[in-house]
Amino acid sequence: MLVSLSGRFAATLASVMLLAGCASVPPEDDPVARAAYEEANDPLEPLNRGIFTFNQGVDTMFIRPAAEAYRGLTPRFARDRVNDALDNLGAPLDAGNNLLQGDFRNAGVMVLRLLVNTTFGVFGIMDVATPMGLVAKKEDFGQTLAVWGIGEGPYLVLPLLGPSNPRDAVGFAVDSFLDPVDRIAVNNDAEGFTIARTGVRVIAAREEMLDVLDDIERTSLDYYSAIRSLYRQRRDAEIRNGAVPGPASSPGHFDWEQEMEQGADAADKAR
Amino acid sequence: MLTRRLFLSAALALGLSSAFAVMPARAQGEAEARDFIQTLASEALEAVVAPVPVPQKINHFRQLFIKGFDLPEVSRFVLGRYWRGSTPEQQQEFLSLFSEMTVLTWARRFMDYADQAGGTSIQVTNTTPDGEHGMLVETRVLRPGGQPPILATWRLRSTSGQWQVVDIVVEGVSMAITYRSEYSSVLRAQGGTMDGLLDVMRRRVAQMQAEYGL
Prior knowledge:
heterodimer, A: mainly alpha, two-stranded antiparallel ribbon, 12 helices, 2 strands, globular, B: alpha+beta, 7 helices, 65% helix
């Protein structure tokens, strides 16, 4: 059963690889389609859609059922404790990225959180630091690269990992490799710990997303492009630390007359 | 010398008076926008928790939504370049299908939220002017069981003295930008034709209406 399934996956992936090249670029004399193409920032769309479908298959068969079982078997209180523990294990990496971004204050906050939550919070299962005013500022290396001025590059959907782009993919690889907690575990021959941590992280994250993703899938006309837009906006907001997009690229202020004349407008380029 | 001093004090007086004139107007705008969102949110929640059949809840919610949102403006933003290339009939049909889709989408979200939270609350935390006729109203949508509140920012625009919502930004994600990206993707997949898009929308609206028994 498993063999035939993985065989089918391999076949799907292979056919996707063969069929995919780049999306056809709309011709110069069709400025409307051209501008929409550029706004999507997705030159590898056919390949990305293939991987997206593959990921959905994996999700439907393995990850989603695990997340639903996890939700069904545990009370919210227990899941909150798991999330707090995962956050605490991530705190050293968050501290490092805050430091690399020149945010010394929040790097210090993350170190204090780690100390307080690991001790008074019983190995991190209770986040006692937040009520004390030590509010977490999670940062990953993709965000650090963005702060250093590196652009996102074209949208990418990675097998199993999902929505990304070259900058965030590099960030993810660096974070995975340099995570202090995982380093310590590996150096003490406890690879099992890092594998278990990753497994719990995937299932806990999926559980938190169950309702939101269902809602988006149900209400969107094109789930793939809705997720693409959401991912890019979320990352953008995280990098800007929560600021709302400017009025120039929003309804009510948006100069669509000008946009028609110029094809691609400055507002979108600025985003 | 005298003229110069006169000139300076006149300029100062003018500057001060215009500052005084602007300040209360702005404060008044912020208070109005705050009240508008508070009222809209509580009326919408009341509409979906009312002890009446679902189609009636949705009808009430639809009235509030269509009055509170500048849907023609959002439609133009969402279609962007394609809006101008469409016939008035296509624009009209887009507006009505788009309105119905957003109404049903947000009615469901409000109903789920009200079910989950029992007694519910949306707190206005801040207002900031946004461009010439706009206002950003920041809110915290409180959730039960110690879950962190959701941050939702409402982008308002005032046309002839009446506030209307043009966008909702939830945790940094703009509803209008998401729709814009999605609809232009569907349009491209349909060969850039409005009729193709309208066809996809008609089917989706029918499907959503069937779910509610409308």
